[in-house]
Amino acid sequence: MQSCGWIAVASRVLHDIGIANARESIDEPRSRRTMACARTSVGAAMIAPRAGRLRVRDCEVDAMRREVVRADGGSLRLTIKAMQVLLVLVEQRGAVVSREALFERVWPDTMPTDDVLTQAVTQLRKAFADDRDAPRYIETISKGGYRLLAEVEWLDAGDAGVVMVDAADGAPPVRGAVADTAAEAVPTGGGAAPVVRAPAARLWPWLALGVPAVLLAALLVLRPWATPAAAPGRAPASADAAAPIALTYRALTSLPGQERQPVLSPDGTMVAFTGRQRGDSGNAILLQGTTQVSARVLTAPPPEGDDQMPVWSRDGTRIAFVRVAGARCELMVIAVSGGEARKVGDCFRSDYSPFDCPLRMLDLASGQWRALDYGIANDDTDLIPRYSPDGRWLAFRRNTSLADLWMMPAEGGKPRRLTTLRGDIRGWDWLPDGSGIVFSHVTTEASLYLYSLADGSIRPLPPLSSGNAVYPDIALKDWSMVFEIDQSRSGLFRFRSGEGATRPLREPVFPSSGVDLLPAISPDGTTLAFFSDRTMSVQLWLGEVGQPETLRAVEGLTPVPRHPAAWSGDGHTLLVVGKTPAGDRLFEVDASSGTVRALAVPDGSPAFAVYAGRRDRLLVGVDSGQGRLRLVLYALPDWRALGTLDDVAIARHDPASGHVYFTRPSRVGIWRADAMLRQVEEVSDRQPSPQHYRQWGLVDGTPYYSGPGADCGTMWRPLPEREERGGVCLSREGVAIAGSPGVDRAGGWIYFALPLNENIDVGWAALSPAIRMKPSPTTADAARTAARP
Fold first, then answer.
1. Same domain, 348 and 237
2. Which of 527, 529, 516, 513 is nearest to 566 (CA)?
3. Peptide bond just before 303 cis, omega within 30 deg
């Protein structure tokens, strides 16, 4: 039997209730920032740059990517509004532009507060490294406005394009966006990993999840498996594959709380999703038209139960879903018209969180599960399988935080790799004609992308100007798509408690209106390192606890907010994984000066790193290209490998004993190895589970679990679990944002990031002609092309 941290289930239904697929679900509440989204469908276009690149004094601005690169090599991605302010100032270079004029041009038909403009100008000054008191770029005119002082020059004017996005913050919606094509659309049928840059977006706490935080249970996706390719409701128009992709987004829901897991009916007229009604303890399945009529409740979960993962039958008359109540997990079907739901089978082993691979299929006539026969290694984790519209091919996501899309014949066989992203893929679906795939990819930012089976190219879809689009679902017979719109806000807190305490002392740390996460406290307990987007871009921040005036951001580093920074034993330096044009790299940051130094890890791509008791000994989790991590102990400066362990999710070093503690991506529990990684023993076989693989910390050689527990959002419980050792509930109302807690051993404080605001809405988009491939191959032809060795 394969050892695997996830089970992705494909279910076969007799007659017209077609096949299955699986989707992810996050088990911990995630922070959301309240979204403001215009509901109208007509609006004015945004200001267009005259060319793709602009020189401002000694800086160069990439207008399409909204990125400023300074002469010293530093760079900063601008927000959409900051870029728009810059374009207005460039138009009027040398003249004073009043604040009222800027509000009229950049925030038309809205009532913005003064600080939104101040914030945009502040970001421009930061990007240009300008001094407000001695400006070289932007001058503030008291009671007047702003003036651009620097010389400007438009470059490569022949490739100008219009950047348009959807509406946000009360702004009218706009019609589309120019896609980055030449630099971004790198064929991914094989070879080097493509460089796909996501548009700027707010950092959200669950963006930091190296793997999704909950296990996927059995899920029916009711699509045809033995029928010809379904024709789209509207025939795809011819379009150049390199043409800009223009989409208009709108929100279908705006209810308080979380409306999740949206799926479209085959004809694209209805959307089913999960949501919690006021006063109810669990989620139900809700149904709503795409014309934004009010939603109606379709299912009635039992007390303390949840209905999840809705999917449509191919004729659009029924919806299948997963019902979870306690340890029981069942597959249910209900008519769209309403009535009683009927049980059609149990989840595999009747468990919501089984840990067995390979992909499995459920025959609803017999209630029997069958494992698909295909190529899968012991350490591979396969999930989110989706059949092509003609039912001949099965594509799926392989592995977790270092994932890619793979494809094989529907009945099994040898899988072929489609992408070489080695990234965090948050949901995907086929185009109605099977010629491509839309997927959500998360790096330091999040966005939707279009993958072409014909040539393996990847093209970005327009970004949301507010929030993040994840978990897309496309109608079977209509060129339309729904997705989750997620906005977030989380804060840092610290707790002091002893075991058995009923009301642990809780204090906020460095409050902000942004998203703060992954705290790491220095060994002496004085300085906290964390990631935050409080300046509109993700940065590493350092500050002395209790002294907010000492907060400072580390420049010249774009961190990957997957794991917290790791302090050296003397508290002088930190290890951080950051993004570069060549991929993820390991950096060492001097805590006093903020100096950043790249470390040349020789074996693969680093995912995390910690000091192994000495500055010249590093434990590094590396990916050699297959999406699976191995832990390597290196001796510096020659990077000599002293020891290695396979199948490691995250590792921590205990300075007192020299032991290395680690979790695995596919198995429940925690393990301990000696200092040279040679002898391994299991410490706990009950916690943490793979979906909580980062939610634990070390205190004096004892691992503590910090994930959710019974009636408790965030536990603090020693491992292995014993009745006499007990534990304490730190936060009943909030599940800590995934990531190891920061532990101050001397002061007895525990640091966490907790959600402050939760909101998810359902978004919708008509897939424009530009997204439809030319030529439009059949699914079989495109699949054969993609599957060539």
1. yes
2. 529
3. no
Residue 500 and residue 482 share a domain: no
How do residues 360-372 score in pLDDT, each as one tens digit? 888 777 778 888 8
CA dist 357 → 5, 6, 90, 378 (Å): 8, 7, 57, 9
> What CATH number has the domain bearing residue 326?
2.120.10.60
421 with 520, same domain: the answer is no
Let me know: does 261 contact 297? Beta carbons within 8 Å: no
**In a domain? residue 165:** no
Angle between helices 114-128 and 99-106 (to 10 degrees): 90
116: CATH: 1.10.10.10
Whether 552 and 406 map to the same domain: the answer is no
**Three-state SS annotation for 466-519:** CCEEEEEEECCCCCEEEEEEEEEEEEEEEEECCCCCCCCEEEEECCCCCEEEEE
Confidence at residue 722, expressed as pLDDT on a 0 to 100 scale: 62
Name the more confident of 441 and 582.
441
Q: Which residue, among 338, 341, 337, has the nearest Cα to 307 in the 3D structure?
A: 341
Neighbours of 788 (CB within 10 A): 8
Is the Cβ–Cβ distance between 280 and 303 less than 8 Å? no
Distances (CA, A) of 404 to 174, 238, 437: 32, 29, 12
If one compares 133 and 64, the residue with the highest pLDDT of the two is 133
Considering its fold, how many domains does the chain have in total?
Answer: 3
Residue 622 lies in a domain: yes
Calpha distance 434→227 (Å, rounded): 14
Lowest mean pLDDT among 58-72, 554-568, 722-736, 756-770: 722-736
668 and 738 fall within a common domain: yes
- Residue 536, domain CATH: 2.120.10.30
pTM of the model: 0.63
CA angle, 557 then 563 then 568, to 5°: 75
SS3 state at 106: helix
Tell me if 438 sits within 8 A of 472, measured CB to CB. yes
Least confident of 1-5, 457-461, 544-548, 584-588: 1-5
Q: Are 108 and 172 in contact (CB under 8 A)?
A: yes
Asked whether residue 129 is assigned to any structural domain, the reply reads yes
Q: Which residue has the tokens 């897309």?
A: 472
Contact 743, 698 (CB under 8 A): yes
- Closest Cα partner for 771 from 435, 454, 464, 466? 435
pLDDT in the model for residue 240: 36
Q: Assign residue 247 a region: left if phi > 0, alpha if psi is -120 to 50, beta otherwise?
A: beta
Least confident of 134-138, 147-151, 171-175, 596-600: 171-175
Q: How far is CA 479 from CA 225, 262, 611, 695, in A?
A: 20, 16, 51, 40
Q: Which domain holds residue 585?
A: 489-756
- Residues 151, 292 within the same domain: no
**pLDDT score for 64:** 74
DSSP 403: B
546 within a domain of the structure (yes/no): yes
Q: What angle do CA 354, 358, 359 make, to 5 degrees?
A: 85
Sign for the pseudo-dihedral over CA of 199, 202, 206, 207: positive
Same domain for 100 and 15:
no
- pLDDT tens figures, 278-314: 656 688 999 999 986 788 999 999 887 889 999 999 8
**pLDDT of 385 strictly over 60:** yes
Same-domain status, 620 and 637: yes
pLDDT band for position 770 (cuts 50, 70, 90): low
* Phi, psi of 746, deg, nearest 5: -70, -45
Over its C-alpha atoms, the chain yields an Rg (Å, rounded) of 26
Q: Are 367 and 13 in contact (CB under 8 A)?
A: no
Instruction: Choose among 767, 670, 750: nearest CA to 716.
Output: 750
